[in-house]
# Entry
Amino acid sequence: MKSNRPKGNHEKTNALVVYSDAGKCKQLDLPLIAGTVAITPSQSVKNLGGILESQLTMNDQIMSVYRKSYFHICRISRIWKYLCLSSPAQLVHAFLTSSLDYGNSLLVGLPSKRLLKLQRSRILLLVLCMV
# Structure
C-alpha cells in the first residue's frame, strides 16, 4: 500500500466487530488505529448494498429491503390506473423483484420468523402481478 499510495476516505471508513457474546467485545482494544486515523467499530456496516450487523441477526438488511419494497409498491399504486394491463407487472419485476432477490444469500440459515416480512412483501408482489 505504501508503494501504490492509495488514499482511503476516512469519513466513509467503517469497521465491524462480529461476536457472539457481548462480553468478548469489551476485551478488544478499541478504537482500531489505521495509519493515523482511529476507527471506532459500528454496530452495522453496509457493503455492496448488504447491511451486516455485529451479531449477524440481519434485521437491518431485512428492514432495508422491506422499506425499499414498500416505497416502490406505494409509487406504483399511485399510477396504477393510468397503466395498460402489462405495465404494472413489468414495473413490479423491474423495481421490486430485483431488490428482494439481491443479497438473498446473506439471509440463508436465518430462522423463518425473521424472514416473514420479506415473504409477506413477496406475496403482495405476486398478487399485484396477477391483478
Observations:
- The two ends are 56 Å apart (CA to CA).
- The chain has a mean pLDDT of 76.
